[in-house]
Structure formats: C-alpha cells, structure tokens
Task: inverse folding
C-alpha cells in the first residue's frame, strides 16, 4: 500500500507546476514549512505521526502512463507531461522524529526541493501527516489515562473508508497495543486480536454451546462476549462453565468482554462472579463508545477492566475532525518569502529554520520550543511570535535541535523503525513533559518563541510589502 | 483501487469463521441487516452512498497467498486456510438504491449468504457504507442551501489519509459538482478543478507578474487567488488588470478566489470593483472553513459568490465523526434470530424483511417507511418499533418497496451508474420529501414502523429468550 500515484494531489499543484515549468522556474529551489496552528482536543501537546510512512511514499511516488493520459485529457500540455513522465521527488526533508511531541506554530518538518517537486507533494504530505498526527495524539491521550490496561483498536467499521488503515498505524504510535484490523496487522507488524460478535452467539440456539465451540476453536486466545442475552444471568455464568471445562483440558480462558450497559457496574459484578469461581486469571475486556474521558472515569471508579477496545472515537479522532496542519512557502529562488494577512497569527515565518527544545539540567522540558534561523546554533532570548513585548531568557538552558535531515535527494537517511519502537520513543519524549501540560482541562500552555534574528527578518519583509501597497 | 484484500476485516470475523468451518456450519445460510440508529447532524434524513462501489468490491474480494501466509502465522488452521484460498463472496444483496434518502432503524441493505461469507464481509461493508453515507449526507445538506452555486470539494489535505478518495466520491453523490482531487477525478470521472495557492503568488516578487504568468498558462480556466497580500488594494486590482489583458487576447478570466477575511464583505466589494471594470462575467469563488451553516448565512447576506470550495468540514463529516451503522443477524440456519438488550432500541428485528416507502397520490412522501416481513406485499397498519401503543393506518397510501435484489451469487445485477446519475437520482428522491424534513433546526421526524406480523414475530422470540433466563 505504499505505491501511491503522484495524482494523489490537488489539481492546482499541477496547474502551478505547469506555469513554473513553462516560465523556466522549474529549478528554482524552494523551502516549505509544515506546521499546525491549534492543538487538537484542547490538549497540551500533539504526537507527530506519519513521517516514516511519508518518506517511503516520497521515495517511490511517480506518474504512471495512465496518469499522464488522464492529465492530457485535462488540458495539460505535452512538454509539461513529458517532464512529469520523469517526475521523482529529489528534494531534502528536515524533520522532527516521528513520535515526538509537537506544538503549534513551530515547523515540524521542512521540505527543500525544486518548486515543482515541493508543490506536487504538498497534498499527500498534508493528507498523511495531518491525519496520523491527529489520531496518534488521540491514542496518546487514551494511553495516558489507561494505566497498565491493554488498549486495542476496534475502529475499522466506523473508520473513514481506507483511512482506517492509517488510523491503526497512528494508534500504535500513540501507545495502543494491538488492533482488530487484520490488514493493518499484516502490513505493519502490529499484534492482531479480537473476540466474537453478538451475531456469533445469536447464530446458535444456545449461548453455552456457542461459547464451548469457540473455546474449542481458539483455546489460546479465547475471549467470550457475555452480553448478548443477559450479562450476569446468562453470559458470565456460561463463560464460567466453559472456563472450568477449559481448565480440565489444561487450557485457560483469556477474557470475557462487556459491550453494553454500565461498564463499571458490570465489570465489578463479573469480576466478583469470576473470582468466586476461582477464575481470578480471566481478564475483563470492555468496549462500547469509549474515549479518554470514559476510560478515565471507569478507572477512577476502580472498575476491574484489563483491556479496552476503542473504536469510533479513536479512528475518527472525534470530536476533532482534522488537524489544521499547513504547508507554507518560506524561501524560494534565493529569497525569503512571507504571506501577509489581516490576522497576525496567519503571517508566515520566512527562511530556512531550526527549532530548539529548551530543557533543564535534568533533561526535563521547561515547556518551550524556540524557532531560529537555520544558521543559529543557540537562541539566547526568544520572543513571542505575535506579541512583541513578551520575551524569555534562554541562555542558561540546554537546547536540543529538533529538525534533522531525514531525506536527501529523495533518499531516506534514517532507518525505518518498528511502530512499537516509535511508540516507545513517543512515550519517552512525553515523560520529559511535566504533568501540567498533559491534563485534560486547561493544560498549561507550552511556549513557542522566535529568535531575535528571525523576528527581524520577518519585520523587514512585512515592511517591504507594506511599502509596496502604499 | 477496487482490488481489496479480504484481510480488510476484523480479526474476529475470521476467528468466528474458523469455528463455523470446523463445526460444519459453513453452509448455514444467514441474513444480516445493515441499518443505522441515529441520523447524523441532527438532520431529518441521510443519503445512502457507497453501494455500487461496495458491490464491485464484493464481486472481487479474495485472500492472496501472502494473506494466507500471514493468517497461518496468526494460528489459523490449515484446513480452514485451504477453504479461504477459494473464498469468494457468493451471496445475495437486497438494497435501497445508492443515492436514495434513508432513515434510522429500517434495513438499508440485507445480505443473504452462507454465514462465513456474510461474516467476513461485514467489516468492509460497514467501513465503506458508513463513511460514504455520512459524507454524502453532509454534501447533500450543503447542496440544499447552496442554490445554483457550484460546489467543489477541496478537502484532500485534511482528509483521513486515503479516506479522502471515498469522501470525494460521496460528495458527488450528495450533490457536489467537482473536486480538486486529481486521483478521484481520474478514477470516478469527476470534473477536476482548482485555482492557485498563496505559495504560488509568494514565489514571485510581484503579484501582478504571478497573475500574468498563470493566465498565460491556463487561459481557459484561470482563477486568481486575490488575498495573499491585500485583497482590495492589491489582489483584485491586479486581477482586473490581467482580465483586461486577457480580453485583448480574446480570452476571459474565469474567476477570482477569496480565502480569508469576511467573505461576505470581500465578495461584495470585489464584485463592485469587477463590475465597475466591465467584468461582470468574472465569477467569485470562496473558500475557508465553509460548511452548510456558513454558506447559508453568506447567501442570506446576498454575498455574490458563485463557487464554494469546501474542504475539512465536508470530507471529515464534521461535527459527526461517523455514521453509527450496524450489521445484525436476523436469520440463520432456518431460524429467525434476535439480540436482546436491556435497552429496547437495541433489540434487533428478526427475519428477512422488505421496507415500504409510504407515498400519497402525488408521489410525495408522507414521511413514513414501514418495515415488513419479506413475504408481505403491503402493510395495512404499522406500529412504532419500540412504543407498542403508537400505530398508523397505511391502507389508503401507495407503498413503494425499497429493497431490490442487487447482487446474486456474488454477481452484480444492476448496471453501474455514473456518480452524476446517482446524484441526480438522489436530488430527485430528496425532492419527494417535504421541506419540514430538510430544515436544520429540529426537523420533522420521519416515522419508521413495523408491520403487525413482524412485531408478533419479534415478541415471540423475546418471550422465548425471557423464558430461558428464568
């Protein structure tokens, strides 16, 4: 699934590219910043996801002959189509690592390439990074509240068509343990698991017989769904009978699953029945419209739930439909570039840049990233990007440069990690962030500043354009 | 993109299928209902989408050799894997037509197949129909308020990864005219269009020169983005200069695009400037966080906008992340089946069924669909599905059967229509629905009832299971 057509783009990228081509701008070098403006979920951080997948796509993306035929039918010109026939992304990418925690305004990634290549890849870059970062962030929030419980992605049926495949990938980056999605499991090496559906139990005349057959068929990972008819009067007692029969065969029932009703009440009652039957090893799985708030509440009520299956709210990123990531020109043809706007927060930052994470002597984040020009090695003082009188002294802190060159001439420079490794890295980075940035209600605001040199460069450009308009 | 692996499913489908296989249930015939419980957007109707695409998938879906190897590594057994090697969907599908308006509780589609096939396709069926129905419904709401304006899908960059491709398909079903998504345009025969990005204008030292080059490159569909620096002082005056130069060459500027600021104010001011310059034929396109409410308000303010580009809120279905469509067993192995629940609205409807749309003598919907047993030709009286004392006389009305056989033995029985034809059908069906069901605030509730015969069958099953639990 990593063989994408370069037509996975917006038409205007190609329209602009053709103009660049015809006007002889095709070798103009450009730098674009990828960043977002608002944290999802009113949260305190986001988890960057999609990078390693994107880099694979970028190293493979091409126009096929049928793509070019289609573009010809769309009035693109022959000399330009001939150029596209040899299209390949040959640029460089500077980026935060996948799994790192990221914050608004600061470049998360920079693309440096000729302007045609940089423009054609914009759409797929935004498409893959925005969505996976949204879902990894959601998953990370759920992981934060779930303690030692297992977290499984059950979302494919409510996912946005094939977007579900990417949702699963991002869920693992954010801290989930496994998925029900067989294809994603196969492609990404993710542990795949599942239980049974109500339809399975319904298809039998008798719940006990249904459970028995299932245990016989899956003795090593048997999970019985206990709420088809009546959880405490029928489902759990039948599961206990089957668990006892399994014991006689030297097997162990892995878990029961609750999928309706008050999960706190039913998990406690079920735990009691299981324990009374000597089945303290049988786990309890729960599903049904879960999200970080419900799971937090269930665990605060000391609900004995060991496994959470999370579906719709995970894979759709509900209640936020999208991360508002953008891709803005910062430099082209030897000159810094800027977009002016009536609203100062929409004015872009010119030039190639570096971003520093500010840390104390113990390696803990102090809650600030500083954006600098790429040739700055440290930032002594950072300024609020939009409020000129706010600044912060940084000279006494450690400064970790965040943007690393991860692609050069269209070739990946980093080794691909497993999703589990990316996830472990993400958890480690998150552990450097103080708790006040992780709470759900009014989290502390992580500071993003710009260096004096960058601020001055931006001011110069704004002044130039204001002069022009007079 | 219609070659899906049968591993595009939840693991439990395969776990259950293996049990059915081993227990000799593999030829048990089953009937599943696809339906949803709540209308999205607190709206009065939904638009069914995804069917024709799904049927193509179902007629092609297989397990590849690498799929089977993967399943072997997941502890599936050899004899079952051998069976899966020849897997093909050989069932029948009875369905409402794609594009029809649909309502909660009533089956939108029924699958009749052996229980293994019916179970394995559940996930992809839900995945494709839930999402496309959600987005077609959103698109239809936007179409309802947009009058004669053109509606373009600009959402790919904020879409849920490759889900964006399906969002575009569904947007056309719901009433959109075109898309920026080149791949979707190519695959589905959708008109593709686009304008230019701010980065294009920024990449020039001079906005006027940027506009000139673009007009030279795309003389037939030139749209100029006028808000990079200053809409009224720079963008529109430069666009007017270029439009005049185009006139001298016998060309016409198609449109200008506004992407920020107060779209009502700027569209009126821009219209005035264009008209004063004799450019009354130049259209105005607008984009930036649009949805049905914003477009309705813009048009109520008489904003002279001819083209709306809708992105994030269309393709993500915001504010609703998903349609809650489910797939429930109604019949298997010669017996009607039911799922009991503490909550009556979650009790399923047994048996193979038909659904009738109730209409008056003029072919207008009276606002009711009646669910019957499949052998009933008419419904004389329908009952509220969950409130036993509510009923409605139907004998004097026309009754249109909604579920048609669209697939038999895994082969499509209907001719594939273009998306534009599906869309036209959808608009026609929507025109049969009175306005009170289409308003945004507290729309009138469309009635769904069940026939007396179906109600009695359900009661019988509930009684049987309650007896068992005593």
Result:
């Amino acid at each position: 699934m990593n063989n994408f057509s370069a037509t996975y783009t917006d038409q205007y990228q190609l329209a602009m590219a053709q103009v660049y081509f015809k006007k002889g701008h095709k070798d103009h070098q450009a730098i674009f910043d990828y960043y977002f403006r608002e944290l999802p979920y009113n949260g305190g951080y986001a988890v960057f996801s999609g990078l390693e997948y994107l880099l694979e796509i970028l190293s493979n993306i091409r126009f096929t002959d049928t793509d070019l035929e289609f573009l010809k039918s769309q009035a693109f010109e022959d000399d330009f189509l001939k150029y596209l026939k040899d299209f390949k992304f040959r640029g460089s990418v500077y980026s935060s690592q996948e799994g790192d925690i990221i914050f608004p305004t600061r470049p998360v990634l920079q693309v440096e390439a000729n302007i045609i290549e940089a423009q054609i890849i914009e759409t797929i870059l935004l498409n893959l990074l925005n969505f996976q970062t949204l879902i990894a962030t959601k998953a990370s929030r759920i992981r934060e509240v779930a303690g030692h419980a297992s977290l499984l992605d059950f979302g494919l049926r409510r996912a946005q068509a094939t977007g579900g495949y990417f949702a699963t990938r991002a869920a693992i980056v954010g801290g989930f343990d496994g998925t029900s999605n067989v294809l994603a499991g196969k492609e990404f090496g993710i542990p795949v698991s599942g239980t049974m559906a109500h339809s399975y139990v319904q298809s039998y005349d008798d719940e006990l017989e249904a459970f028995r057959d299932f245990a016989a068929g899956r003795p090593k990972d048997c999970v019985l769904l206990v709420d088809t008819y009546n959880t405490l009067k029928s489902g759990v007692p039948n599961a206990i009978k089957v668990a006892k029969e399994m014991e006689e065969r030297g097997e162990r029932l892995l878990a029961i699953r609750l999928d309706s009703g008050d999960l706190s009440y039913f998990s406690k009652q079920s735990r009691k029945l299981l324990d009374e039957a000597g089945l303290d090893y049988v786990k309890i799985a729960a599903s049904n419209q879960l999200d970080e708030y419900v799971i937090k509440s269930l665990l605060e009520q000391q609900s004995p739930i060991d496994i959470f299956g999370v579906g719709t709210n995970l894979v759709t990123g509900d209640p936020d439909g999208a991360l508002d990531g953008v891709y803005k020109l910062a430099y082209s043809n030897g000159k810094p570039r800027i977009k002016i706007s009536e609203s100062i927060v929409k004015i872009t930052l010119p030039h190639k840049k570096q971003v520093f994470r500010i840390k104390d002597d113990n390696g803990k984040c102090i809650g600030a990233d500083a954006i600098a020009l790429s040739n700055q090695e440290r930032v002594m003082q950072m300024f609020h990007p939009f409020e000129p009188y706010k600044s912060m002294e940084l000279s006494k802190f450690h400064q970790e440069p965040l943007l690393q060159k991860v692609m050069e001439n269209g070739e990946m420079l980093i080794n691909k990690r497993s999703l589990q490794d990316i996830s472990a890295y993400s958890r480690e980075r998150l552990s450097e962030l103080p708790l006040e940035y992780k709470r759900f209600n009014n989290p502390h605001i992580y500071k993003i500043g710009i260096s004096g040199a960058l601020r001055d460069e931006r001011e110069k450009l704004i002044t130039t354009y204001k002069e022009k308009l007079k």
About this structure: Chain A has a mean pLDDT of 95. Residues 94 and 313 of chain A are 32 Å apart (CA to CA). The first strand of chain A starts at residue 29 and ends at 35.
